[in-house]
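Hi R.,

Here's the chain you asked about this morning:
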Amino acid sequence: MSSNSSQIDPWTKASGLLILLLAAFVCYDQYYYWSTQEDYSFGFIVPLFVAYVLHERWPIIKNYLLGLGKSKAESKGGLLTSGISFIVALGLIFSFLVMITGGAMRVAQGPANLASLMIAVGFGGAFMGIAYINSGEDATGRHPPLKERLGFTFIFLFPALVWLISAPMVMYLDSDVKLILMEWVSIIVFNVFDFLGLSIVREGNTLMLPKGVVGVADACSGVRSLTGCIFAGSFLAAVFLDKFWKKFLLIATAMLLAFLTNIMRSLFLTGTAYAKGSEALDEKIFTFVGGGITLHDFTGYAVLGVTCILLIMLLPIFNFTIAPPDGDDDEEYPLADPEPES
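And the predicted structure, written out as tokens:
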């Protein structure tokens, strides 16, 4: 059979077009956060990364839909398959209702955290539900078994759910997350300086130093690094890792690295303020036409870059596998008995 994409049935093509339209609406909604919230400016590259993941996986998707895979197994039906299909159908309907409700709120009252969260959640559920439904029969008329259908559906996990990271999920809890992170940062920095015997006084999230005062504000909380690193970890996991537990572990590692590197940044900035005064943090270290970059901002971007590099360096470890021992050549090809001496 030809692998021409035109052989994909019209319903599947229509489903793909529907997903593109829904994704465009998600981008329209989240554009507000990307353009107004510096912590979420990385959202502008999210559509590009989603497109890359789909492009990279397109051969697998196409072969599955056209029935060109190696597997010829047929679904045996059964109660489990029917039950999961029923749950997915209900979930799909619920996801559409959630997204429609969020969209109505967005149109009526403009950008709102709750509306954006509902839109992103509804889109993710609708995307996954549509993928599962379209996996029920390929172009040859074969009904793949449940395991294959679930495997096909999870191919779309990153493109469907990454929109929760690019604004709504963390934004909805933004203030609470920032308060927690700011408190942790201020406590850790204070304890480190106090342990070293340096003069420092902590009042809430404000650190009193001999040459000035350093406040652990929103920008020092590490939310920008946290959200950016969660996205970077999710993308790297989707592209380079195959096992679900590895993907989860890499994302968790990204969150931990984001926190640790932000602590190192806060210690460095506090140390600089301790030695040179707090005004040194706002001095521009790079200047260009129309502005410049302060030490405070530069270290923020550097932390994000370093964390991403560390994640990339960890990929070979996550992909490390112990090669099975070589076959026993002596058993497969035993040495000939030596010829008897004449």
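The two ends are 64 Å apart (CA to CA).

Let me know if you need anything else.
M.
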